[in-house]
């Protein structure tokens, strides 16, 4: 990765699941434990990948919908709480960094670029995952799905992150793998980079991002494209 100091943005906002970490195994394990408690068959890893991206409650809703059980209201709240308890006991056993994640976070830090993690996952488990990988020193702020009143794709979380970092939206880039990430950036009028290999049924090239890269190791390529726009 070769980035000229002149093209670094003032801040980069990263999604967590499917962007900085591959957490599908731990998430799938947790939701399958929950399904088993209600005598339901487990979902596959492929199904789990397509269900991640809009927070744990949406994952629970989609997992039960795959078993022809429609959840809403208080019932969904209860099962989402149960899911959080299960997942909270085992956040990182099988979760691993995405290729190039730590190196890129370190480069941001070394080049004076502020970093926020903006994820629809609740803030507490997100902080624990960041701490588990020793990334606290690289991440300036974490905005979780319960930090603000609205989640991605609403722009509120991105705008809040920029306020926390003390940077303008126009000086910031959002990096993510799902429609929620890129839609939130577009809704905030923020430049964005979509990363392949995450959790989405939509081809990344069709997400509407400013540009698309195959892995975080190609972040410099994405920056060069944005710099030429």
- Enumerate the strands of the largest sheet in spatial order, edge to edge or round the barrel: 5-4-1-6-7-8
How many domains, as an integer? 2
How would the global form be characterised?
globular
Mind summarizing the main beta sheet? 6 strands, parallel
Distance N terminus to C terminus? 20 Å
What CATH first level of the largest domain would be assigned?
Alpha Beta
- Look at the structure and name the CATH superfamily of the largest domain: HAD superfamily/HAD-like
Report on this model:
GO terms for molecular function: metal ion binding; phosphoglycolate phosphatase activity. Keywords: Carbohydrate metabolism, Hydrolase, Magnesium, Metal-binding. One of its GO terms (biological process) is DNA repair. By secondary structure, the chain is α/β, with parallel strands linked by helices. It has two domains: 152 residues, Rossmann fold (3-Layer(aba) Sandwich); 65 residues, DNA polymerase, domain 1. Helix content is 42%, strand content 13%. A six-stranded parallel beta sheet has the order 5-4-1-6-7-8, with helices on both faces. A two-stranded antiparallel sheet has the order 2-3. α1 packs across α4 and α3 crosses α4.
